[in-house]
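During the reporting period the student researcher (J.K.) took over the structure-prediction task from the postdoctoral fellow and processed the backlog of single-chain submissions. One of the processed entries is reproduced below for the supervisory committee.
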Amino acid sequence: MPFELSEEEKAIQRTVREFARKELAPFVAQIEEEDEIPPIVSEKLKELRITGLPFEEKYGGVGSTFTSFIVAVEELGQVCPPIANLPMEGVMTSLALRRFGTEEQKKKYMIPLVKGEKKACWAFTEPATGSDPRAFETRAVLDGDEYVLNGTKRFASGVFTADFATIFAKTKGDKIGAFIAETGGEGFIRGKRVRLMGMRGLATGDLILENFRVPTENVLGKDDEGFKVLLEIEAESRIRSAALSVGMAQAALDEAVAYSKQRYQRGHPISDFLSIKWQLAEMAMKVEAARYLVYRCAYQRDQGKSIRKDSAIAKLFCSTTAREVTSISLQVHGCYGYTKEFKIERLYRDAKLNEVAGGNADIQRVIIANELLQ
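J.K. obtained the following structure tokens:
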């Protein structure tokens, strides 16, 4: 099975890498200080057309591969993880529309998302139930040619700027429906923003639905197929999360290598010391293994194969790797790594999110085990 990136994918990788370091890196300190991503950053991202990479040209896309999108996320993650998260909610909604949407839904919602003209949020998690759809409290009740939605969603990234929202709610008994809705209407209430330990600038918060009406033509698939939508799109989202973790881990390794060469003890750079070499080697081993899992999974996705188990393996391994590598890198930096003057302090905080968000580590273990036991 080949894992070498195609020439097109390599070109996209180089383009995103150069763009991120030249155009986006200057905003990192501002984002960290203000806990906000300036609107100009979103405008700059539109130039890269990242949201269109894995989609067909007839829907406004670039017509490239899913792997190219994953490679782009990894490169953005090396520079600024919160920025790397910006395109994701729109891409998830576009993936759901491509797989389950009608042609009318695709024209109305998918094309502007793919082109980067509109933004979306993914409203799934709830305050009392976490990510367990069986315990959802949000309800969608059919009333004529509309569904009336009531409930509260939490950690809805992008909800404060989204034009569209993908909302999951119970419809028939314990059956789940997925709805694409335009934001801002009566009963669509943006709640409080949740302040995070890391990933500063990532705006996530509550979405409160109070008799919020959604037309029946806005159901994705059938009104009892929401769980199917969720399983397929979340599997693709896990690869994105894993790629972001690889980007952070690579950045942490790069920081450790650079610091070990410039930090002197007893007249020698600390990179000469065997203990430091061991730590650098440990980090490099973990990063390369994690990247292999991500690229392999993205390749399988491009081949049309099921990635439910492999995406869970990739997310679990890569998120753990990011936490471990940032920790080792901080250790190489010593006390300096614990200060705001060094990039590793930020990476250390950012890396933890992917172990607890988008399905935490234990949920990934359950998914993997269930697939093995089928």
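The committee noted the following: Strands lie at 120-123, 139-143, 146-153, 164-170, 176-182, 188-194, 204-215, 264-265, 268-269.
J.K. will present the remaining backlog at the next meeting.
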